[in-house]
Records
---
Amino acid sequence: MYVCMHVCVYMKMAASLPSTKDPLQQREKLYLLAVGYFRNGDYSRSRDLVDRCLTVCVCPSVLFMFVCVLFRIWLL
């Protein structure tokens, strides 16, 4: 049930991305989705979202997430 709730939240957030016009809100949604996929072990999807997030706006937390994702992919 816990995982199901997270999947529903991810789906709602992903569905709301196209309607988000503010770059900071878009970056926040992309970042949170990337963190969610990272925690679920889907590192390639997380990396795609982090890459998209970096094209919107660069910030320290996104750069740290990018390094974490690359490190996890490298370890696999």
---
Amino acid sequence: MSAPSGNSDPDQTRRDIQQTRAELGETVAALTAKTDVRARARTKATTAVGGLQQRVTQASQSAKTRATQLTRAMSEKVSQRVKPVAQKAQQTVTAARDSAQAGVRTASEAESTLVSSARAAATRIGSSVRAHPAPVLTTAGAAALAVLAFRRRKRSTESTTTARIRRLLSSRSR
């Protein structure tokens, strides 16, 4: 507030009054603001909510960043662990394929060797038979006679047994 001046100029007095009124208005407004508990609580709440929202946003972004970093790290670890396993699997498949091909070659070679051996044996036997036919023909004839004798014996045994069964059946039915 300004002090009233010594001269009694009405214009100056009016200006002083207006200035005093303005200062008093400001003081009253400041006092009203201090005594308005509701408005002060709202202001504090708004400030606190704003601060919390800012912290939540920062925490959310921090969590997203950390999650992205962890995802990348885990992806790199998985990639590092998958590569050796994939390489090992590829080596195993290649080894199995090579082994199978070697087995096929070996089986083919063994078959070839067996066929060659059989041909050679057949050739030697044929040469031997052609050179000495008598022992082979004698052996073949003896085998044929043995088969014929076995068949006759079997037939005679069968007919004897059959005749006995018929006699028994006919004697019972009388």
---
Amino acid sequence: MKTGDGRNTANRQCGSRQFAGLENPPKQFMAGGDAISAVVPVLEQRLIELDAYEELSKSTNGSF
């Protein structure tokens, strides 16, 4: 069966059942390759920034 936008509902239902059955589901789930393509570069940039300021962050332990 297709939705009004032409997408196949059977594929989504199958994916939903797989997701619901996970023992440890992810806290955030990106559905689809386009979502992954949009989110991965943002997360990679955040990791670069975290790495760049890791020592400064650790230097504040107990100093606030």
---
Amino acid sequence: MAVKFEGWFNGTFVFCFLLSCIMGFVLMYSIVLCSYYNSALTTSVVGAIKNVAVAYIGIFLGGDYLFSWTNFIGLSICMSGGLAYSFITFTTKSSQVKAEAKESGTVITLDPTGRGATIF
């Protein structure tokens, strides 16, 4: 149980734990802000890029990764596939919205903050 954990009396552990909690809050808040100012699709693309960065940083700085070319190439193929999927989804969605707007004769302009759109 967490209550019986002996590390709660260790100052370094408590500091690192609280810092981890604060960083988790900042991460979640930044994701909410990203979704507010952008579309959910943009947030997912940014999330995919973040996951790639975290994976490669973890490989080189984490210390517990046993390097082998087969594993590294496999991870790189996996990361490339995830990024390609996000990019294809993003460009397909963007072109569909533009095509629908052009087809219906509507003009969509964003306000200066990027939060809203004016449709004519």
